[in-house]
């Protein structure tokens, strides 16, 4: 998961680590750069699966991401994937979060 480095409550700002290869969505849609190899794609899928199993089996309260998409999967310099926006939906009452997540 993406590491939270700090927060500034006065401005409602969260500071996360910088992941230089952007999001998985960016990497899959880039027309001018070398596409991700199938080896990278399978490794990223396995990493995401591992994180989801961890989140879903967390005790005492399992965590469901509720907005997992390529734009929320970030890649570091070595294309190691990290899930972002984990748990932000839990900060909002479920009735409001459910409305904002419907597209």
TrEMBL record:
Residues 1-103 form the Protein kinase domain. Its EC number is 2.3.2.27. Pfam families: PK_Tyr_Ser-Thr. InterPro entries: Kinase-like_dom_sf (IPR011009), Prot_kinase_dom (IPR000719), Ser-Thr/Tyr_kinase_cat_dom (IPR001245), Ser/Thr_kinase_AS (IPR008271), U-box_ubiquitin_ligases (IPR051348). It is an enzyme of class 2 (transferase). It catalyses: S-ubiquitinyl-[E2 ubiquitin-conjugating enzyme]-L-cysteine + [acceptor protein]-L-lysine = [E2 ubiquitin-conjugating enzyme]-L-cysteine + N(6)-ubiquitinyl-[acceptor protein]-L-lysine. GO terms for molecular function: ATP binding; protein kinase activity; ubiquitin protein ligase activity. Keywords: Ubl conjugation pathway. This is RING-type E3 ubiquitin transferase. It comes from Heracleum sosnowskyi.
